[in-house]
# Entry
Amino acid sequence: MIARLTIVRYPQWLGWAGFLSMALFRLPLWASQSSGFWKLMGCGRNGSFDKTPDWRQWALLQVWDDEILPHRHPRSIEKWWRFFGCEKWTLLLNPIEGHGTWDHKQVFGKLPRQTAYDGTIAILTRATIRISRLSHFWKQVDRVASKMSTTPGFITSVGIGEVPWIKQATFSIWESKEAMKNFAYRMQEHTDVIRKTHQENWYSEEMFVRFQIIETEGSLRGINPLKRNP
# Structure
């Protein structure tokens, strides 16, 4: 399987075009029938799970079998982004480890939980939060998110989601798996949240996938986070 994540940022005052695109883009994505799975998503402001949306920033995730990966998005989508002068950051990703489901599907195929890979790694953490547990979840988010960006080995992160407050995900990039594990399993605030999610049954569905980054192009807020320059 191969995944492509594109983060698109609209010029100031044109966030409405990004909101409208979430409805309009469904037509060419359905019609193309090339990707086995796709999601149009909004973005949070603070690079992680976030209650406050960034109306200028939106995301498109597509997943394919390796042999049928197209070189471009549907032409109508590319034209829309060019017309509105969007900034784009695109990553091609190879899923290598993970567990869980998205819409009750193993959208990245059946993956091992661990491999020997320890280069630069991207992480997608995604969950559907139970309505009855929303207040518990959101009380814990800020204190964890504020620690992530200062953790050694952290490169960047983007908060993405299908449904505000309920269906949320964080896409983050780390210098190594070890750096990510130091944050996930050795930082007290994060380990407390992991424990509570299981004890209090916060999620009706969850997924955790690690990716090897195949290729990246474009920029986000003027830089390519992996190249440190436009």
Notes: The helical segments are 15-24, 26-32, 75-83, 134-148, 177-186, 188-199. The chain has a mean pLDDT of 85.
